[in-house]
Amino acid sequence: MQISKQAEPGVGLSSCAPWCSAVMRLSLRRALRCLLVTVAAGFILLNLHVLYNTPSSDKSRTVGTFSHVGSDVHIQYSVGQSVPTKLSLHITPRPANDTGNHTVTVKQRYHQNIPINDTEALKQEVIRINTEQYVHNLDKFGLSLGADSLVIVIQTHDRPEYLRILLDSMRKVKYIENSLLIVSHDVYSPQLNELIESVDFCPVMQIFFPFSQQIYSKEFPGEHPNDCPRNAKRAEAVESKCNNAEHPDKYGHYREAKYCQAKHHWIWKLKHIYEDIHLLKDYEGNVMLLEDDYYLSEDIIFSTRMLRGLRERDCPDCRMLVLGNYDKNQNYAIHGSKVSVERAYWISSKHNMGMTFNRSVWVEIKKCYNEFCVFDDYNWDWTLQHLSMKCIPDKIRLLVMKASRIFHIGECGMHKKSKNCDPDAAVKQVETKLAENHQHLYPNMVSLAGDSRFKLRDPKPNGGWGDIRDHELCQQYFNTSSHR
Is 158 annotated as a binding residue? Predict the structure, then answer.
């Protein structure tokens, strides 16, 4: 019994040593494991911080295939493993050795020797092109359209020297090959067509405003021989029975077709893009609106993506992104690598350069189409500001870059006349500015600098849009197919 009593504590003491050692080893493992988990969590948080200002990636989308043979278009969609929230169209490039079934070459499509003075032939050619909706360069680049895509739209008149400069600047833009470029013309010209056919850096489509002065050269919406002179007195106009004598604008002036055309073209273009182009039928991504006398920085698409991320984080009620501004002093050293962004409500004189928005904004404009069509101002941008103030719920709120990615180089145009119309000099100034600040492009972070203090008001109409024929034609876009 004594031996047993003495041996029992001996056994207990000797077995404690390995047990304690095991406990110590287990504690050490736990400590190391906790340390590794902490380091991994820190790494993940750091990466989330870097990506915080960028849009979410396109990982799970509905995709489709597209084939374009002659004038026939075939689109087929297939759904992946997960249910997507946004629709994406995927068009694969054609292999170099794949000749396809094309029986008509690109130049035959757009160079049919249409006599410029044959207005009926022009009218039919424009209808054909708008209906066919041919996309150049699909064989080279393919095309993917989703919620994170960008469609770029240029509204152009008859200024090939400016359009050439804009296209040359676009050639340098990073990620441009992933965008769809749409050029909307109000003049049919072999020279302009050749410029578009020279685009070899992205998919591109041409559309034509079908009610242009070129096509309707001697009738409304062009200048009719019996139209009332701009400065005719109303009593004299009524007595002479000139067209629309009873409806001058609010300042007593009669319409001038060359000024009315730009507003018609602008609203027709939006309607055609969102409702008549088959490739964009289900498109929910952004559309960027440009004019032919702009110059783009090479990081404009990159900056657009950064702005979109900032909107998702800090301004979900912002309906528009604006990539350009008219400030005379562009300080990229302050606003470059860490870009400051201003929040504002849409103002025509400040936010009409590089407007970028999705279908939801078009839906709001469309709801207000009657107000757009009757507001007595021949400027589309002043009219849009009026809609924002009086018709569109909660106004159009936006984010605008304080360091501009778009530059207006037009010295001569509809509103500005100058004896020195030298776009090359303006381009050199812009290129020098961008070269001096190249290290500040491609910002790694964007931040909200605050809200604009610019006074918001309903703009006083400028007139020029009192003719009821303009009202009715504008309203017609929303009631019929815009091909005709």
Answer: yes
Cα separation, 129 vs 110, whole angstroms:
8
Per residue in 263-294, pLDDT tens?
999 999 999 999 999 999 999 999 999 999 99
Q: What is the pTM of this model?
A: 0.80
In this predicted model, what pLDDT tens digit does every residue of 193-210 receive, in sequence order? Answer: 999 999 999 999 999 999
Q: What is the reported pLDDT for 295? A: 97
The token pair that represents 301 in the structure block = 């698409």
Could you tell me the strand order of the sheet in which 150-156 lies? 135-136, 204-208, 180-185, 150-156, 286-291, 355-357, 320-322, 397-401, 338-345, 445-451
CA dihedral 430, 307, 267, 159 (to 10 degrees): 20
261 is in an annotated binding site: yes
Spatial separation of the C-alpha atoms in residues 395 and 406, rounded to whole Å: 24
Q: Which residues of the chain have pLDDT under 70?
A: 1-29, 31-32, 34, 36-88, 95-112, 334-337, 411-420, 481-484
Q: Is 112 annotated as a binding residue?
A: no
Spatial contact of 129 and 161, defined as CB atoms under 8 Å apart: no
- Reference 252, options 21, 463, 16; nearest CA is 463
Tokens of 384: 């849009």
Any binding-site annotation on 156? yes
Contact 236, 187 (CB under 8 A): no
Number of other CB atoms surrounding residue 146 within 10 Å:
18
The string of DSSP letters for 49-109 reads: HHHTTSPPP--S-BEEEEEEETTEEEEEEE--SSPPSSB-EEEPPPPTT--TT--S-HHHH
Task: Please tell me whether 483 is known to bind a ligand.
Answer: no
Question: Distance (Å, rounded) from C-alpha 483 to C-alpha 366?
Answer: 18
200 is in an annotated binding site: no
Q: Which amino acid is at 204?
A: V
Closest CA to 11 of 132, 19, 226, 169: 19
Residue 264 annotated as binding site: yes
User: Is there a binding annotation on residue 335?
Assistant: no
